[in-house]
Amino acid sequence: MTIRQYKNTSPKIGNDTYIDKSAVLVGDVTCADDVSIWPLVAARGDVNYINIGARTNVQDGTVLHVTRTSENNPKGFPLIIGEDVTVGHKCMLHGCTLGDRILVGMGAIIMDGVIVEDDVFIGGGTLVPPNKTLKSGYLYVGNPAKQARPLKEEEIQFLKQSAVNYIKLKDEYLAEPNN
């Protein structure tokens, strides 16, 4: 894995966290306990910070980035990902805030200033435009994202189970020699 310092700030990695050797983490990136960062993920906390909550998994080819502070936006847009979140393959999360128990489908793009409340499914390929709020308990799909329907109880349960599945997988990877 490539963990790089930027302006005297290095990524902070929690306990029992798996970061694939091909992933790149730069600058102000914090991974809580039991996080998994899979192949070819790029997390660049250079002009703001990235926080990744416990038991969250970020899958292959995903890009995590932030927006710098400015006169018009004094705090900029950090990237904050809650707990028990599954981020699918080849997603782009840029300066947004995700709550807990969220599934971000493959290839989704979530832009600056977006707030995703807890217990949300975001369908594969969905584009969430800047400054939108996705309310808890719904499936969102499309370009731009639209609220499709309320989540079924079994889908809400799956949000937590998806995180549990990835904890088991990352533990298997951590047990492998040379990982």
Tell me what the structure shows.
With 179 residues, this protein is mostly beta strands. The protein has one domain (2-175): UDP N-Acetylglucosamine Acyltransferase, domain 1 (3 Solenoid). The protein has one helix at residues 153-175, and strands at 2-4, 12-13, 18-19, 24-31, 36-37, 42-52, 57-58, 63-65, 79-81, 86-87, 92-94, 97-98, 102-104, 109-110, 115-116, 120-122, 127-128, 133-134, 138-141, 146-150. The strands form 2 sheets. Strands 1, 2, 4, 6, 8, 9, 11, 12, 14, 15, 17 and 18 form a 12-stranded parallel beta sheet that branches. The radius of gyration is 15 Å and the shape is globular.
Which features would summarize this protein structure in a list?
mainly beta, UDP N-Acetylglucosamine Acyltransferase, domain 1, 12-stranded parallel β-sheet, 8-stranded mixed β-sheet, 1 helix, 20 strands, globular
Number of strands: 20
Structural class: mainly beta
Count the DSSP helices: 1
Mean pLDDT: 97
Separation of termini?
Answer: 10 Å
Fourth-level CATH superfamily: Hexapeptide repeat proteins
Estimate nothing, just give the exact number of structural domains. Answer: 1
Radius of gyration: 15 Å
Percentage of residues in DSSP E strands: 35-45%
CATH topology: UDP N-Acetylglucosamine Acyltransferase, domain 1
Query: How helical, in percent, are the residues?
Result: 10-25%
CATH architecture: 3 Solenoid
Order of helices and strands: EEEEEEEEEEEEEEEEEEEEH
Would you identify the regions where 5 or more consecutive residues have pLDDT less than 50?
none
* CATH class descriptor name: Mainly Beta
The major β-sheet equals: 12 strands, parallel
Shape: globular
Organism: Paraglaciecola algarum
Protein name: Gamma carbonic anhydrase family protein
InterPro entries: Hexapep (IPR001451), LbH_gamma_CA-like (IPR047324), Transf_Hexapept/Carb_Anhydrase (IPR050484), Trimer_LpxA-like_sf (IPR011004)
